[in-house]
Amino acid sequence: MSDILKLTAADLSEKLRSGELSSVEATQAHLDRIAAVDGDVHAFLHVSDHAVEVAADIDRRRAAGEELGDLAGVPLAIKDVLVTTDMPSTSGSKILEGYMSPYDATVVARSRAAGLVPLGKTNMDEFAMGSSTEHSAYGPTHNPWDLDRIPGGSGGGSAAAVAAFEAPLALGSDTGGSIRQPAHVTGTVGMKPTYGGVSRYGAIALASSLDQVGPVSRTVLDSALLHDVIGGHDPHDATSLTDEWPSFAAAAREGATGDVLKGLKVGVIRELDDSGFQAGVSESFRASLAAMEAAGAEIVEVSAPHFEYGVAAYYLILPAEASSNLAKFDSVRFGMRVNVPGGTVEDVMAATRDAGFGDEVKRRVILGTYALSAGYYDAYYGSAQKVRTLIQRDFDEAFAQVDVIATPSAPTTAFRLGEKLDDPIQMYLNDVTTIPVNLAGVPGISIPSGLAAEDGLPVGIQFVAPAREDARLYRVGAALEALLVDSWGGPLLDRAPILGGAR
Question: Residue 499 — pLDDT band, cuts 50, 70, 90?
C-alpha cells in the first residue's frame, strides 16, 4: 500500500503545501486504493470521474501562488445523503436511483470552495435508517477489520472508506449515532456537532430536529480541520446557529500538546451500568477513564435517570418526522415512478413506494404516520417530546457538575452481517448511548479506545459536552488520543487486518 495513504489529512496537507506531494498524486493513490479494495469493502456507491481533474486544478492554483485553504488538495469521501451536482445522490434508496441534484449541499459546496477533492459518494442505510448499512438498496458495506461484520450505520460507508484507507476524510450525518457508532466499530473518529452548528441544507432529511452533518476521520485533529471548513452559519438553513465559532483545529492541537486533562471533571452516568455492554467494551472504557485520571482528570458519577427512555422516545420522534419528510417521494416530484396502466395517481404512488422503499423505511413510515394520526398524537409523539425535554434537563444538571460526560460509544463491537437484521429492536438498542445526544442537540465525539479482548475488534469512547462547546470535545478527545496512541505504540488502524496487521 502506498505510503501516501497512511498519511493523516493534516500531514498530507503539509506535504501538499510544501510541494513534496501533488494533489494529483494523492488523489490518484486513493483512487487506486478504491479500485484495489472496494470490491470487498463496498464503501462507495459512486466514484467521481472528475477527481483527478479537480486535483490538477488545485495543483495549478497552488503553483500560481494562490492562497489556498489548509485542506486544499486533500481527497474527501461524501455520504450519499448529501446532494451533489456532479454525482448521483440516492440516500441509499432505490427510489432515488440515478437522481442528479441541481445544487450541492452547503457542506459539499464549502468543501469544494476550500479545495478538497471529492472522491465519490459512500454507501449508507436507506434514508439513514439503520445501524449496520445492511439496509442500503445497493448492498451492505463490510467492516475493514473483518469483512464478515458490519461497519456500523447509517454511515458505514464513510467510516469504512476512512478505515480502509480509501479516503483520509469523509462527510457523514448523525441522527441518532450514525457518525459515532460507525466510528466505534471501525476504529475511526466521528464527530456529531452541536445541532445547528453545521448546515443541513442539501442533506436529504430523515428527522429534521435530530439530523446533523459532521466529519469522519482517522484522528481528532483531522476531524477538527474538516469541521472548520464545513461549520458556521448558513442562511439557507433555518435551524443554523449564527454563532461565531472558534478554530476547532486550534482546540485539537491544544489538547494534543497541552495539559487539558488536569483538573478536568469527567462525568460517568450512574444508570449506564456494565450489564448492557460487552465485557471488552466496558474494560476499554474503564481503561480510558483510568488513563485520564492518571493524567489529572477527576471522574465524577452523575445521574441521568431519563436516559433509559431515550431509545423509546427517539423511535417515536424519528419515524414521525421521517413520515413527513419522505412524503415528497410520491412518484410525481422526485425519484422513480412505477406505471400502473389505467391506475389512479394513488395507485401509481402506492406501487412506486412499494417498489422503491425498503422494509426498514416502510416500517418507520408506517409507525410515524400512526404516531401522528388523530387521537394518537398526544399519546405517542407528544409524550416522546416530553421525554426529550427531560433528557435535556438531565444533561443540564449533569453539566452543572462536570465538564464532559463519557460513555462507551456503543454497547458491542461490530456484529456479524445478518446477525440482527431480523430483529429490529436489537438493532435499535445499538444506539442506546448515542441517541440522547441527538435528542438534546448537544455535541458528541467518538474516538478509538482500543481493541476488545474477546474478538480483537475496535472499541470507541464517546465524550459529550454542553451545546456550543464543540471545541471542548476536540481538546479532550485529542488529549486522550495522544495518551492512548502513545501507549499503543502507534495508531490503532495500523493493526487492522486490511493492512496486514495482527490484531
Answer: low
- Average pLDDT of the chain, as a whole number: 95
CA angle 477, 426, 368 (to 5 degrees): 95
Strand partners, 299: 266
Q: Say how far apart CA 306 and CA 446 lie, in whole Å.
A: 22
Catalytic choice (13, 111, 158, 178): 178
Closest to 169 in 3D by CA, of 224, 223, 229: 223
Residue 1's CB: how many other CB atoms inside 10 A? 14
Q: Which amino acid is at 499?
A: L
* Arithmetic mean of pLDDT, 470-483: 98
Domains of the chain: 3-268+400-499 (3.90.1300.10)
Q: Which residues contact 225 (CB under 8 A, 6 or more apart)?
A: 9, 10, 13, 70, 71, 248, 249
CA distance 461 to 326: 33
192 annotated active-site:
no
Q: Which three cell numbers stand for residue 258?
A: 497541552
Higher pLDDT, 89 or 379: 89
**What pLDDT, on a 0 to 100 scale, did the predictor assign at position 502?**
41
CA 348, CA 403: separation in Å to the nearest integer?
54
Q: Which of 132, 154, 173, 223 is catalytic?
A: 154
Give percent of the chain with pLDDT exceeding 70: 99
Q: What is the pTM of this model?
A: 0.97
Choice among 13, 22, 23, 79 that is catalytic: 79
C-alpha separations of 350 from 79, 93, 129, 324 in Å: 28, 16, 20, 16
For the question of residue 79 being annotated catalytic, the response is: yes
In this prediction, residue 216 carries a pLDDT of: 98
Specify whether 240 is catalytic: no
